[in-house]
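Troubleshooting: if your tokenizer reports a length mismatch, compare against these two reference records.
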Amino acid sequence: MRFLKCASICLGLSALLASAYIVKEGDTLWDLSDEFLKDPFAWPDLWENNRHIQDPHWIYPGDSIYLGDSIQEENVIAVEKTKYPCNAAISDSALPKGKGYYVKNAGCDENDERSAEFENLLGNLRDKDKKGQKKRKAEDSYYFQQRPAPKIFNGYYQLHAPEIYTLDSLKNDKRFISIRSGEKKEPILHMPENEVVVGVGKKTNAKLKRGDLVEIIDAKPIDVPATKGTEFAKYALLRLSGIAKITAIGDTLSRAKIVTTFREIKINQSKARMKQPLQAINVSGYTPDSVARMDSLARIRYAMDPMLLIGAYSYVLIDKGSAQAYNTGDGVAIWEEDHSDATLPPRLLGRGLIVRASKNESSVLIRELYSNSRHIEIGHKVSVTHRAQIVK
């Protein structure tokens, strides 16, 4: 008799586990609907079947979620579907009904029901999802809300984004110090564990100590098309090449050992600076920016390697920055104009993210390309399509 009772209890608990789920940190009704109901837009049904959840936007770790009959295992005793789980006693259908064996469904207390007043404030959720809606005919418009929002911004992009300086501003910037090889026989390319000598010491930086990190910056002169006309302007393009650690300190010079590299380190075209604290932004989401004028868009001024095709995860420089509302984290689109007929709409070539914005220039990371035969080139236009929501 005891064996039969244990078997009944085990069978009932199996049914409970098959139709209930314990919320973990990070779960949402949208994700649970996608995983168990195979349709994330069915989350209103999941919320409807869990009357103890007051607000569908807030579920908490440890909560029990009734998932419905459709995900039950084959050996679970089926019962007639009802609108509310409290009327279906799925979890304890195989248990004896005597005292001590009754397992209650989550949310079945009379005092645990959500208030009708709160639910009415949310309106008809089913009308807000994709089901039951007819597809709208695409309109002949160039609004950006038809484009999906960018993928979440990564602070790693900021770290490796190129910087552009005028030659005079670079020369007068006191943060940059000299760097040369510290090896007895200088290698062509410097790698981790190689030694370098940097132009900083006790007399120039009283706070300097062993273990401090130094950024190794690749700095090369470039010719950038002027904003107007056909002239070119001289700039310096700076990119992070590696990190070195101070191992010995002198009066005006210090030795450092390279600890990591991100690209080839050519000492003859490198500068150094003490590692800068990265003001990484945190993007929580995006707000679509639906309108842009073609005559006010930014223009691609430079590609990192003009001899190669601009592809996904390439960096380009554009001629607008924070002063023109092109801000770090914003999503952008790259366009090709058809100059043969001004009435033809521009052609969308790809999308990207602004990863570093100065006052009048920005670095853009290309994230997606939409054509195999048409390539992004210097001179193509760039518009902001999504404004980043920055967490302060």
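Reference record two:
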Amino acid sequence: MAAAEVQPDRTAECRYSGTAELLGIPLGASGVNTVSTQVRLFQGIQGSRMDVEWIPAGVYVVDRLTRTRYGAKVDLLGREEAVRAAKLPVPRTVGPDAAGPLAETLLAEALPGVPVAWLDGADPGTPVPAYVVEEDRWAALSGGTDTTGVGTGIAAALGAELYADAAGIMTVAPVPTLDDPVVWRIPYGLALVQPAEQESAEGLVNLWAISGDGGDGSASVGPVYIWDDDPASITYAGPDPVADPLAPQREGLTGVRIRAERYASGLITTIGQAYDVGRARLADSLGIQASLSITSVCNPALEPGDVVEVEVRPGEWQRHLIDSCPYSLGSATQSCTTRTTTRRVT
């Protein structure tokens, strides 16, 4: 291999994507092709007086192949692409059953032999009622909406997300939050370029209404309401924006603004499950407005969703969640885009 670029990105449907230049390899049915080939990448790290440690950098299907004089250049997409492409030939009723067996069966049909990992906080034993999958296997597994606007997806109904990790394992994990353990600290001097801070209200939601409603007239769950109840947060929604929306005005909190969204899914069957989904969606929608772009020493062990602490100015540390962390194999540097929540100045 001559060169490769890896682009881990939590906001993309394929968490890992990239490109690679392959030298001296066979092409076609018996070699590299866009139908059956899978490519596994690693980044090697070696310090003085130590063996090379190989860090997984994704397992990919070949999305596009361009022949070159010495081999081929390939565009790579993570294993999610194989699931997305494996649409159901006919509509199918799925369930009732536990989330684990249902998801693992749908994944095994598209990715035979690929393991599925359930991380703590994503319960594979959660009951899932019977529902009809028209054709979109990925939407049935991960999340989306049907023609009526009702949410779909086993992972989404658990307050979780589905992705292929750096080792190519299909993983169901809870939505990461800034309360997760810090995996790396980036001192001010380790950043090779001054961190660039940005703020945006795009995608910001500080109040979610969650219900278990299949849209077919059957009994529904909820709605339950989850909001930002931290008075120190700049996205504070008030003490009770549902039952007492005028409370912030009485308390002189003129800066409080409500940005509400609804989410309904026929796969949400209990109040507790609805609260789990609401907390996950709130955690994902509050940290969008403050982001950081930083170029630092390359750490290929970082993955999207990891929490890092960054010294943005001497003595000022901020906790951030990584959205994307692309790098070139063999490079000494890495650019990361992160998100965090903004707290009021007191």
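Descriptive notes for reference record two:
- The longest strand covers residues 53-67.
- The mean pLDDT is 87.
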